[in-house]
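Input.
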Amino acid sequence: MNEYRELFKDLVAKIFMKKISKTELTQELKDFFDKIKSKSPKEIKRIRKLAMGQNIPLKEKRKLFCRFCLNPYSGKEKIRIKNKNKIVECLHCKKISRWKINS
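Output.
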């Protein structure tokens, strides 16, 4: 857990010192979202802000965490599919997120 925090701090330091390019940041974001289950809401909030600062869209990655409390989805949430919409209820804040299903 501590090694992830150190890596995260290094990433934040690189970005704020402008020593990281956009392509490097996209690779770091990919690595971050591969291990999102072990991340805290504070880390997710920082990564979102970094992506927004560099104009990098999260696209499908934004569906991996709650947009209200920023906790990562565990896979045990209540999920409903109705009228071409996917409805997910967060376990932590009980808020509902809705996304269109493209088919």
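The longest strand covers residues 78-82.
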